[in-house]
Batch of 4 targets.
Target 1
Amino acid sequence: MDYKAVQFAIKPLNQSNTVQVLPLIQTLKSDITTDQWMDYVDSFIGRDSRECGIITVKNSSGYYMGVLCYKIVEDVTHQIVMDVSNYVTADILGRNDISEKLLEWLEDQASERGCQAIHLTIDIRNTIIPENGYTKSIPNQLISKGYVCDAVRLCKKLNDNSITQH
C-alpha cells in the first residue's frame, strides 16, 4: 500500500491556539475544563523554553495531531532529566508516524539540554499493563490514605552517565 507522505511540524504551543489543543488533552483527561487547561498553559508563559514548555505537532493541513509538556528537573538517579507529561498523539489507522517524530524530537531536545534521561509519564488508562498489577504494589498505608496509581512512568537513559543502571 502506498501512503501519501504527511509532513508534521513540531513547535512550541502558540498561546493563541491553546484551546485548539484541549481536545487532545481531553483524550487523556476527559474531566479537564477549558479554564483548567488555560491556567496550566499560563503557568508556562514567561519561563525559559530550555527549562519547560508545551510542544505541539501539526500536520500539513494545520490540525493538531500531538502534544506534550516537559520540564527539565534534577533526579537522584539520572541527574538532569526531561520530565514529560500529557503526552498524546493522534496516530491514525495504526500508523505511528506522529509518535515516532515526537519521540525523536524528545531525544534530540533532551540531549541538547544535557539530560541524562527522559522520564515519560503516561496515564494508566493508556498503558498495556493491567491496573491490578499496579494496585498490588501500592503499600496498604498509602491506599488507606486515598492514594491510587493513576499513571506509570517510563524511563529512557540517553547515555551511561547515570548513577545506577536499570
Note: The chain has one domain: 8-157.
Target 2
Amino acid sequence: HAVMIEAVENHMPEVIVIDEIGAEAEALAARTIAERGVQLIATAHGNSLENLLQNPTLSDLVGGIHAVTLSDEEARRRATQKTVLERKAPPTFDVVVEIQDKDQLAVHREVADVVDRLLRGNAMRPEQRSRNRRGVVEIQESIAETAPILDIGDDGSSKPSKRLRIFPYAVSRGKLQRAIRDLRVPARMVEMLREADLILTLKSQERRQPNRLRDAQVRGVRLAVIKSNTVKQMENFLRTEFDVHDFPEDHEAALRQAEQALDEVRDQGQPVELPPQDRYVRRLQHELIHDAGFDTDSKGRDPYRRVVIFPH
C-alpha cells in the first residue's frame, strides 16, 4: 500500500489498478488515492455488495457502516427503531461490478445511493449484463432511474436542460467526470470530436495548436482552456460555464485553512495537519496543495480523517 501512495505522489498517474484488495491498510490506501483524484480500478473478494458491506476489513471501500441513535422525533418520522445502521463515509469506489458467473455481471452504478437504500431495507436490483451463446451481451437496466437534470427558469418553473457535450483533449476523463458529477451541471463527455459543442484542453496544448484543435475551431467548435489537469481547475471552468456560485462557505473556509497552512509549512519547514473534513473537501485540499508543489497525505479515520501537508 505504501508503494501505491508513493506512485501517486511521485509519478502522477491518471489510473491505478489494484488486484485483490484484502487488507485494511490496502483499503485505506485506496481511499487516500481516490481522494487525490486518481481513477481507481480494483478487485476484492466478496461476491456481492452486501458481503462487502458486512466485511469489517473491506466495508470502507463502499462507505462502511455504523450505528446511529436517532431522536424520538426522527425515529417517528422514519418509522424505525431509535438505533439504525447508516453509511459512515463516502464510498471509495463510485461503481461496483459483481462477477456473478463467467458470463454474468451485476453493475451498481451509484454505490452511495445503493448502500443507503440497502441499509433502509429498500434494496435495488442492479443492472444485469449477461452474454448469451451467440456472444451477444444482453443488458437489463436497474429498476432505479436517474432523474433528468432540471434548469430553474426565471419564473421559478423547471424545464429539462440540454446537456453541454464536452470533448476532453489531453485532459483526464476521470477527473472531468468527477467534476461534472460533483457540481451536478448539465454536461457530458463525448468520445468523438465531431459530436462536441466544446473542447476542454490544457494551456500547454493551446500553445502547441495541434491540427485537431485548429480544425475543430475552424468548424466553429468552442475551445476552453484550463491551466492544469486537476479536478479543481475543471470545477472552476464548469462553475464559470454554468454560472454556478453556490460553493458552500464551509468549503471555502477549508480551502483558506489549507492556504494558511501552506504559508506555515513554507515558513517553518515542518508538517502541518489540517482540521478533519469530509472526503470531497479533503480532495479539494489535496488538489490545492499539490498545485502549490507540496506533498500531502491523509491521516486518521472518518469522521476525523484529515490532510497533512509536508515540506519539500
Note: Confidence is low (pLDDT under 50) at residues 144-161.
Target 3
Amino acid sequence: MKKIVVTAAAVVLPLVFAGPAVSEPTPVEPGPPATVLAEPAATGPLGTAYPIRTGGDMTVTVHPSEAEVAPRAADGSVLVFDVSAEQTAGKPYFLPTLDLRLITTNGDMVYPLTGVPGEYPGGFVEPEQPRSGLVAFELTGEQQPKEIVFATNDDFVQGAWTL
C-alpha cells in the first residue's frame, strides 16, 4: 500500500505543480513618455522661495552671491549662489545636501562642487530654524547657465530658479 501511495504521489505531484514546458514571453508594455512623468515645477527668478517636500515641508530660496570660488578646470567658470532652507512643518529632518542642480542652455545637468568654503552645511534641518550656505557650480567654456533646479532625482523637479 505504501508503494502505491508513493508511486501515485511521484506521478501526480509533478503534474499538479508543473508549469507549461515552454512559457511564451509576456509582451512588455511601453511606459509613458518622460514628459508625462515629469510634473510641472514652479519656476521663477532668483530670490523666490519655493515649498519643497523632502522629509517634511521645507522652503528653499536661492539668491545670487558675491562670493568667489576658483575654477577647478582650466577653461571653467564658477557660479556661486547663497541658498537657505527651512523646515516649515514636521520633525527635524536630516538633509546631507541640498538636491540642487544647474541646467545649461543645451540641457546639460551640472552638479554642485564639493569642498567649497562656506558651502551649505549638511545635517538636521530644524523647524523654524533656517539654515544657509553657498552652492557653487562649475561650467566649462561652452556651457551657458539656464536655471537652477531642486530635484530629489533627475526626473522629479520641485522648483526652478531662472538665471
Note: Residues 92 and 126 are 4 Å apart (CA to CA).
Target 4
Amino acid sequence: MVVGSGIVVAIVAITRRIVQFSGTATVPEENALQPVIPGALVYNGADLDFSDEVLCNVLIKHFPYYNNLDEPDKEKFISRLKQFMQQKSFVIHDKSGFREMPILLSATAIMLSFGLELYMLPYYRFIHIFPAEFIGVVPTLRVLAGNVSGNSIHISWKHFLQGFQLPDDGQNVGLHEMAHAYYYQYFETGMKADLGFTDKFPSFSTVGDLVLQAEKTKDNTFYSAYGLSNLSEFWAESVELFFERPAEFKEIYPELYATMVTLLNQDPGQTYL
C-alpha cells in the first residue's frame, strides 16, 4: 500500500501505550531466503510462548472481531493464532518491540482466513514491522504503509494501528496486505492451496471486474482510485471494505458482497450485529 507522494524524512514513533516484550530478541543473521537489516530486532514466533490469558486480554482490548465471536469460535481463534505465530519470525525495525505487534498482526491474518481450511501462509516466514512509513525500492522508489514481497509481509505499525482505531473507514493496511498474501500463497507459490478459496475466486474476479469498470465510469466513491488501479488492488481493498463497512458494501454491491461471503466463508454483516 503506497502512502501519498514524496519521501518521508521523519519517522513517527510507535504508540507507547502498549506493553513492551519481556523476552529477548535474537541477534539478526543473514538468511538465505530473506536478509535481515542489521540492527533490527528478530523475534521467533516459536519462542514467544504467550499464554492464552495474555492473548485473550490483548484481543479483547484491541480486536473487536474477536469480541463478537461465540465461545467455541474464540477458542478456535486462539488456537489458530498460536499456531500461526509459531511459524513466523517477526522483524521489528526499531529499538524496542511490543507484544501487541505479533499478536495483532497475526490476528488480522486469522480474521481474514477464519472461514478457510488453510490459513498458515507457510510461504511467508517473515513479518517485518516498521514504526511508520518506510521506503520501498522495487519496482520503483516509493513511500509505503505496507507491502508483500519475496517471502515477507511488511507493515507500518502506525498505519496498522490507525486501521483498527478507525474501524469503519474502509482502510486497514493489515487486512489489505494479508489479502495480497493469501492470494499469492494460493495462486502464485505452487504450494498447497485452499481449494475452497481457489475454486471460488473466479466468481469474485468476474463480478469484481464488472464492479471495477462500473466504479470507473460513475461518480462513486466507495472504492478509492488506488483500489481501482488493477484487479489485485481491487481485491485487497474489497477485503478492507468487506470487514469494515459490510452493511454499506452489501447495499451498494450485493452480488459482489455475496461472492465474498461465499469465498471467505464468513459474513461480517452478521458477525457484527
Note: The chain has 13 helices and seven strands.
